[in-house]
């Protein structure tokens, strides 16, 4: 695709009613950019199935993550971002509080979730916690970027700062030989 | 027999202290003896039959010997002398060794390089590394062929991964005996340091000894530092030269190396200025290279001009002051806000997921060699250039700018972190009261109060730390407000144990007033190590006493390896990680002539710090404070926040 046409399409992708294919391409481009900047260690472009496109990336602890763009439901998410978190556990409660803060003025404005563009959604799925953002006003790219930031906060702040060392070793594959309690 | 000895020790009356004895306070001792009861007197006489600990008079005598200048006249110079003269001219700051590799070490000591002999080669190599970390100077270590050399391997590796200019000297048996298993200890050394040295050479031709010495210092004093390993077969070390014309490349350092440094291009500096100007929240990581190149003034000028938040990384800290309004060292909550990260002299490069930064942060990296740019962390701009030259150019090119919102965010994050530390301390006080031993957060608070809020100049005392059990709660209470004020012993390689040996070397640098420590020459230093570390270094207290190194060592004694938390879920492995409980390292320290103290409460720790500092200041004697804790403090579940590795970049960083 010629570069100019592509850029125009990508700019339009943020608008309500944008073509799902264009949205998918824009989001894929954004995620690929993270791989090119070394944030993800590996990345594969998504496959669309129905209204959902799934992208895969190698990220924290060398694990493969899935990022799902659902243009029909208006949702971007990391399914089972944290696996095997017991229901109603303190960890679940604390994660919700931690991420919930990004919808408040507890964090600086440049790190907040703009309520006009997205809304945090944490759900239980397959025994784990799925973290996503409900996309408002067609702001798929904004929500993608924000969600990647939130996942980074979970893995670099929430988990290491909290009492989750054993969880990280047992469920996330943290190597105890290089990361000590 | 051992039991009898122990009983005798326990029942012996208190006689003259070692300090009194070492200080030569014999008249006072005699007066005290006159007041003893007959029973005590008999016991003292029995004890007196055991010779007391003392420093032999040959040691001060040897240390006061004038250096020798060898000459090609008369008997000529040995290869070792030629090399020693080169070391002296190059300003080799010190040599730490065990008494092996005799020809070479004796020549270096005779040439006037301050030399120290210790108990194991590994610890002496760590001490040399510590001296270099603290001073930024080239320092040598030495061991003999075979086992003396292999004892140094861990320390050479630690120096390699921390990028330390360590000159490793090891003798080798005679080439004439090669492949014949002649005598003992013959081995080929160089392959063993592959992967942990910047440069290495086994010298074969005696007449090239100066040439390879020059080669060594060229590598040690240019580019990114790292260990250089030279091994001297007997034929090289002992060859006598009466004619300098027989030596190859026998000219001085003005010819065989250069002080010239790569100046960054104006285009690169302009691009860096452009990126910084576009950024709202830039964060500069001042790595090891800023210290190594003594670029701290240029750093301060550049970041103050443009309000760039700054923190340090590397095996030493303090080249940007923790207390500065732009310091982000204690502001982990702000890192994720940075939109531009500028690495200057970051020799050990993290990957983006290793640092607490957001996924959209852009990166500039300044490095003296192009080959490393782009490794691990993709860059917006890679700049080949000397750290000092870059920072000076940046300071000259950046516009004046205030970033009030960013500076306020960094300050607020610091306040938040400070509250966490205070909360840890409050919890720690309760845990300490409940258990009767000291929680690491209490140790940290007491140290902070003593070193930085009392009568001592807060910039005076250098600290260094190792061990992981207290990294999260004690280490953040240390402060570095002048270059080299803190040594990060486990930096990158993470060796367990060498902390005290490394800090003996670092404390020697302060004692000498070497490098950035000139203003605090002779001041005591403080080492934080663990009971696990004691297994590696305790005997080096003998070395510290022998040379009167004013080092105060706190031993975090939780009766186990820091690995104990890993045993959760595997009960049969627990014993692998445990020691006997309540081991009295302080008593062992006393037996080695150091001051020993034992602390289980904040009050006891306060008193121990005060007495140890006083003894270190006035008598130059080392102390060991055995700080009794318990292993369960590492459990986040039972004693939150538990142990853990802290965060990086910032005050607890030690990996990159």
Chart the SSEs and their pairings.
The complex is a heterodimer of chains A (181) and B (656).
Chain A: H1 3-12, H2 20-36, E1 42-49, E2 52-58, E3 64-70, E4 75-82, H3 90-100, E5 118-125, E6 128-135, H4 140-161, H5 165-172
Antiparallel strand pairs in A: 1-2, 2-3, 3-4, 4-6, 5-6
Helix pairs in contact in A: 1-2, 2-4
Chain B: H1 2-11, H2 18-22, H3 26-34, H4 38-48, H5 58-63, E1 77-78, H6 79-89, E2 95-97, H7 102-110, E3 115-117, H8 121-135, E4 139-143, H9 147-150, H10 153-161, E5 166-172, E6 199-202, H11 209-221, E7 228-233, H12 234-237, E8 240-241, H13 253-256, H14 266-278, E9 282-286, H15 288-292, H16 296-306, E10 309-312, E11 316-317, H17 332-335, E12 340-344, E13 362-367, E14 381-384, H18 387-397, H19 404-435, H20 440-452, E15 462-465, E16 486-488, H21 499-512, E17 525-530, H22 531-537, H23 540-546, E18 551-557, H24 585-591, E19 595-599, H25 602-619, E20 623-628
Parallel strand pairs in B: 2-3, 2-4, 4-5, 5-7, 6-7, 9-10, 9-12, 12-13, 13-14, 15-16, 15-17, 17-18, 18-20, 19-20
Antiparallel strand pairs in B: 1-8, 11-16
Provide an overview of this structure.
The complex is a heterodimer of chains A (181) and B (656). Chain A has 5 helices and 6 strands, in the order ααββββαββαα. Chain A is of the alpha+beta class. Chain A has one domain. In chain A, strands 1-2-3-4-6-5 form a 6-stranded antiparallel beta sheet. In chain A, strand 1 (42-49) and strand 2 form a beta hairpin. In chain A, helix 1 packs across helix 2. The model of chain A has no long low-confidence stretch (mean pLDDT 89). Chain B folds into 4 domains: 2-54, no CATH class; 59-256, Thiamin diphosphate (ThDP)-binding fold, Pyr/PP domains (Rossmann fold), CATH 3.40.50; 266-407, Rossmann fold (3-Layer(aba) Sandwich); 436-634, Thiamin diphosphate (ThDP)-binding fold, Pyr/PP domains (Rossmann fold). In chain B, 38% of the residues lie in helices and 14% in strands. In chain B, helix 16 (296-306) packs parallel to helix 18. The two termini of chain B are 50 Å apart. The chains are: A alpha+beta (181), B alpha/beta (656).
């Amino acid at each position: 695709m010629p570069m100019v046409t592509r850029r125009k399409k990508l700019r339009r992708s943020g608008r309500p009613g944008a073509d799902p294919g264009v949205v998918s391409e824009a989001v894929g481009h954004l995620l690929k950019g993270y791989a090119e900047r070394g944030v993800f260690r590996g990345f594969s472009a998504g496959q669309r199935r129905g209204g959902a496109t799934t992208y895969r990336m190698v990220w924290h602890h060398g694990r493969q993550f899935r990022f799902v763009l659902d243009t029909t439901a208006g949702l971007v998410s990391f399914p089972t971002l944290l696996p095997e978190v017991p229901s109603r556990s303190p960890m679940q409660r604390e994660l919700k509080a931690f991420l919930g803060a990004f919808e408040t003025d507890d964090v600086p404005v440049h790190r907040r979730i703009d309520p006009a563009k997205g809304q945090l959604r944490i759900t239980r799925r397959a025994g784990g916690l799925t973290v996503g953002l409900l996309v408002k006003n067609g702001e798929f790219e904004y929500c993608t970027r924000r969600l990647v930031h939130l996942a980074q906060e979970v893995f670099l702040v929430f988990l290491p700062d909290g009492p989750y060392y054993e969880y990280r070793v047992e469920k996330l594959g943290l190597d105890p030989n290089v990361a000590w309690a | 027999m051992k039991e009898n000895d122990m009983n005798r020790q326990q029942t012996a009356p208190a006689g003259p202290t070692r300090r009194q004895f070492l200080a030569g306070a014999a008249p006072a001792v005699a007066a005290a003896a006159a007041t003893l009861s007959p029973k005590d007197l008999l016991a003292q006489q029995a004890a007196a039959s055991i010779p007391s600990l003392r420093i032999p008079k040959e040691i001060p005598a040897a240390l006061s010997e004038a250096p020798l200048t060898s000459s090609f006249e008369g008997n000529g110079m040995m290869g070792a002398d030629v090399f020693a003269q080169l070391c002296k001219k190059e300003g080799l700051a010190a040599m730490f060794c065990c008494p092996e590799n005799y020809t070479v070490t004796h020549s270096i000591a005779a040439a006037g390089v301050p030399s120290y002999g210790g108990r194991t080669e590994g610890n002496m190599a760590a001490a040399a590394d510590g001296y270099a970390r603290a001073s930024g100077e080239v320092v040598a270590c030495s061991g003999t062929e075979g086992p003396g050399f292999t004892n140094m391997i861990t320390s050479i590796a630690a120096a390699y991964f921390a990028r330390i200019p360590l000159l490793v000297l090891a003798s080798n048996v005679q080439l004439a005996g090669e492949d014949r298993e002649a005598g003992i200890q013959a081995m080929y050394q160089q392959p063993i340091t592959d992967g942990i040295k910047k440069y290495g050479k086994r010298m074969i031709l005696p007449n090239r000894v100066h040439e390879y010495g020059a080669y060594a210092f060229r590598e040690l004093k240019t580019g990114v530092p790292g260990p250089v390993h030279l091994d001297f077969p007997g034929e090289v070390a002992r060859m006598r030269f009466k004619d300098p014309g027989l030596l190859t490349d026998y000219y001085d350092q003005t010819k065989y190396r250069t002080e010239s440094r790569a100046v960054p291009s104006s285009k690169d500096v302009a691009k860096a200025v452009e990126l910084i100007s576009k950024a709202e929240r830039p964060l500069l990581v001042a790595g090891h290279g800023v210290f190594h190149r003594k670029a701290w003034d240029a750093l301060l000028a550049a970041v103050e001009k443009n309000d760039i938040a700054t923190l340090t990384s590397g095996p030493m800290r303090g080249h940007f002051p923790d207390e500065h309004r732009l310091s982000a060292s204690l502001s982990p909550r702000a890192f994720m806000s940075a939109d531009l990260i500028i690495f200057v002299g970051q020799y050990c490069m993290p990957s983006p997921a290793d640092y607490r930064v957001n996924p959209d942060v852009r990166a500039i990296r300044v490095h003296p060699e192009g080959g490393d740019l782009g490794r691990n962390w993709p860059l917006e701009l890679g700049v080949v250039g000397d750290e000092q030259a870059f920072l000076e150019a940046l300071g000259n090119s950046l516009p004046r700018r205030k970033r009030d919102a960013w500076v306020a965010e960094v300050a607020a994050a610091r306040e938040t972190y400070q509250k966490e530390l205070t909360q840890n301390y409050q919890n720690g006080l309760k845990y300490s009261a409940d258990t009767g031993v000291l929680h690491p957060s209490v140790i940290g608070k007491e140290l902070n109060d003593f070193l930085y809020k009392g009568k001592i100049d807060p910039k005076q005392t250098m600290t260094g730390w190792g061990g992981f059990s207290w990294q999260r709660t004690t280490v953040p209470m240390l402060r570095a407000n002048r270059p080299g004020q803190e040594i990060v012993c486990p930096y990158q390689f993470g060796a367990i144990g060498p902390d005290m040996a490394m800090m003996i070397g670092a404390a020697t640098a302060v004692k000498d007033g070497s490098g950035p420590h000139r203003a605090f020459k002779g001041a005591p230093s403080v080492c934080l190590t663990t009971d696990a570390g004691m297994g590696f270094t305790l005997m080096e207290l003998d070395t510290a006493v022998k040379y009167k190194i004013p080092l105060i060592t706190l031993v975090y004694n939780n009766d186990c390896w820091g690995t104990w938390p890993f045993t959760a879920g595997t009960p049969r492995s627990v014993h692998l990680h445990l020691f006997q409980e309540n081991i009295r390292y302080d008593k062992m320290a006393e037996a080695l002539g150091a001051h020993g103290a034992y602390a289980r409460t904040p009050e006891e720790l306060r008193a121990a710090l005060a007495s140890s500092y006083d003894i270190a200041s006035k008598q130059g004697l080392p102390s060991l404070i055995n700080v009794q804790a318990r292993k369960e403090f590492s459990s986040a579940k039972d004693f939150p926040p538990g142990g853990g590795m802290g965060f990086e970049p910032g005050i607890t960083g030690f990996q990159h």
